[in-house]
Amino acid sequence: MSFIERQLQTAVKNITCWANKNGFIISNQKTSCVHFCKIRGIHPHPKIFLKDTPIPVVSEAKFLGILFDEKLTFKPHILNLKQKCVKTLNLLKILSNTSWGADFQSLLKIYKSLILSKLDYDCMVYGSASKSALQILDPVHHLGLRLASGAFRTSPVHSLYVICGVPCLQLRRQTLSLKYYFRIKSDCEHPMYNRVLRPLFGMFYSNKKSYIPSFGHRMRLLIQDIDMENVDILAKEEETPPWTERNIAVIEDFSKQTKSLTPDSVYLQLFYSHRQQFSTYEAVFTDGSKTVNHVGSAVVFNHLTIAEKLHNYCSVFTAEIYAILKALHTIELQDIKKWIIYTDSKSSVEALLYSSRDSHPFVFQCIKLIYTLKTNGHEIKFCWIPGYVGIRGNEQVDRAAKT
């Protein structure tokens, strides 16, 4: 303990010196210390001083909205969270009046925004609590769904999940934790990258079943259970600088028509007229497909067809935008300078037009490659075409993406 005290005291002095140098003041009244320890019985606490004033050792402390107790059971935080959510549920009880209350969709939105958001906040941290402690929050979740849906008290909770389209809290915690894990994995400069992806004390946690493993170990076990060990995560792509020209040329000859009201023959006639107008441009068709057991992307040139199988967890949008990226890479190797990329995915074209910092990494790669091609003298245009109307190139690329 004496060694720990010396190390902590040195760290506190360094922080105090840095604060004084940069104009910050650390309040003695707002400073406390928590001794995280699994040892049972009486054991000494560290004695640390801040400006010659001893820092009080407390059993729990709040940091960024989470109560950390000395045993890291997170039970005080869960009990406090339940108390706050129960108070907010009273508002939902009033608004769910059967004669003048709000409708189902409004009540569900209120529940998600006022209560479920609190339950989700930092669940990847307090998710390490014991199963019995986490189950304390389940009645709050169930009551909120009952009030929103107007279900009877005798209605099974699984039916509430289906009616409201909201999973159980355990599944939500796992989903949010996985999103956080993969977000860290996509950014090698994240401060928690090595701690999460290369967690320490693996043998210790495997031998000591009573000890709750760290976040990295918990996510590794979860990924093994759901068979996502071989999923490759794209590295985080930097957004293109604002001074970079990002004009994406889009032809909207087919967007003006309503597909449900337009016969296939009209679309074919429009396409033939369109190709006659842009006869100096080479055509390339892209498509992505997703079925239960297959996700694929394909690109069809005049005398070349490229098809690739993607991981089954990839979305249709990923397959579509990857096909466009593959087409751009192939165009880069060609001598022809004028190209029109045809796709039946409006979302892909809109993603290129209205990209943001939260866009798919493939979108950023496409934008950067388009800028590079323009710099080299290429002229790239995009055109949305309706699918399954008999356009030959689109039919070919659709078959290639599905095989």
From TrEMBL:
It comes from Araneus ventricosus. CDD domains: Rnase_HI_RT_non_LTR. PROSITE patterns: RNASE_H_1 (PS50879). The lineage of its organism: Eukaryota, Metazoa, Ecdysozoa, Arthropoda, Chelicerata. Residues 278-403 form the RNase H type-1 domain. It holds the Pfam family RNase_H. This is RNase H type-1 domain-containing protein. One of its GO terms (molecular function) is nucleic acid binding.
